[in-house]
Design a protein that fits this description.
The complex is a heterodimer of chains A (82) and B (261). With 82 residues, chain A is an all-alpha fold. Chain A has 5 helices and no strands. Chain A has a single domain, classed as Non-ribosomal Peptide Synthetase Peptidyl Carrier Protein, Chain A (Orthogonal Bundle), CATH 1.10.1200. In chain A, 57% of the residues lie in helices and 0% in strands. In chain A, helix 1 packs across helix 5. With 261 residues, chain B is of the alpha/beta class. Chain B has 9 helices and 6 strands; from the N terminus they run H-E-H-E-H-H-E-H-H-H-E-H-E-E-H. In chain B, helix 8 crosses helix 9. The chains are: A mainly alpha (82), B alpha/beta (261). Chains A and B meet through helix 3 and helix 4 of A and helix 9 of B.
Chain lengths: 82, 261
């Protein structure tokens, strides 16, 4: 799976949880889930679990803690995806 | 970060805070009780039964305990502590007085509130905190639970703006704590003002409080974050059920204010 495909899926999975809808149109790898997209930490857990289901991966608690930006998520999934 | 990795200085600081809050109860306890009874003319429904039940549960489960409650006002923790046990009992059994987890932004803006929170046995938490600060707060919670203390926590992670338990958008903090301290027991509490009730910064004078408490043993076959979510959902669902029981009792007349019974 290419980075672009992962990014596209990540954005699709994140979109229902985004509170700051304006930020959605300008997503970059540096966009943060909490500050920029207005997602709270509990919903970020839901998103990580959605990544697990969608990509068939297992994200450790420590790895989940390290996800702050869209780029972090894409990089992590890229490493874990079979 | 587990409590084993919490620095000695931090562990000592928590022990000193616990001791000072206990000793300080001699002063803060009567002041809070005077405010409760005389300044705000608060009262409680079936107080003797509530306290007897809490004492029995604490005796049956003397180890780490998560007291999980619905959240309507800024002073729920204080009122809940006053209702759960007597000052005399807290003085004799320091572990009966739970630790609290106030949002730093709301309570740590002035020296007087900082002192109140310190003596009120609080561990401040920050929404959106850095990983390091969040890990430190979690390690502190883990440590006090490991000492056999109780922590009062609001599983919704916020106050219920519409006055009802939000069982759709809630925090997973309870589940994460249970992942860290699997032997911790869960005590679910539903507390609400019977006269005015609902969401408010402070309860109105003359309020009469209802409090129901029940042990819960949430289970999950999953691990990690999924387990945290499962356990948190079960706790919130039980408190939501207790809310339903409260309103059913009020609607049927089984639970009434003394002046309307």
């Amino acid at each position: 799976m290419t980075e672009a495909e992962i990014t596209e899926k990540v954005i699709a999975l994140v979109t229902p949880y985004v509170k700051n809808r304006k930020a959605l149109s300008n997503i970059t790898p540096d966009t943060t889930f909490l500050a920029d997209l207005g997602i709270n930490s509990a919903r970020l857990v839901d998103i990580v679990l959605a990544f697990e289901d969608e990509f068939g991966i297992e994200v450790s608690d420590d790895a989940a803690d390290s996800i702050a930006t869209v780029g972090d998520a894409v990089a992590l999934i890229g490493k874990l995806v079979p | 970060m587990t409590h084993a990795r919490l620095r000695l200085r931090s562990r000592l600081a928590l022990r000193v805070q616990r001791l000072l809050s206990h000793l300080g109860l001699v002063v803060t306890g009567p002041v809070l009780l005077a405010l409760f009874h005389f300044r705000f003319r608060f009262s409680a429904h079936d107080l003797a039964r509530v306290r007897a039940r809490y004492r029995a549960l604490r005796a049956a489960y003397p180890g780490p305990l998560l007291i999980c409650s619905n959240h309507l006002t800024l002073v729920d923790s204080i009122i809940q502590a006053i209702l759960l046990d007597s000052l005399w009992s807290y003085l004799r059994h320091p572990a009966a007085l739970p630790w609290n987890l106030p949002e730093a932004k709301n309570y740590y803006h002035s020296l007087s509130w900082r002192l109140t929170c310190y003596l009120g046995r609080s561990i401040p938490v920050e929404r959106g905190a850095s990983r390091e600060r969040a890990a430190l707060a979690q390690a502190q919670m883990h440590y006090v639970l490991g000492q056999g203390d109780a922590i009062a926590i609001f599983p919704e992670g916020k106050r219920s703006r519409d006055g009802r338990v939000d069982d759709r958008d809630f925090s997973y903090g309870v589940g994460q704590l249970l992942n860290q301290v699997p032997d911790a027991k869960v005590l679910c509490i539903y507390m609400r003002g019977m006269r005015f009730g609902g969401f408010a910064d402070f309860p109105r004078a003359g309020e009469r409080f209802y409090l129901q408490l029940e042990m819960l043993a949430p289970q999950s076959a999953s691990l990690g974050l999924r387990r945290a979510r499962d356990l948190s959902a079960q706790v919130v669902a039980r408190i939501k059920e207790m809310e339903g029981e409260y309103f059913a009792a009020r609607d049927s007349g089984r639970l009434a204010l003394p002046d309307t019974a």
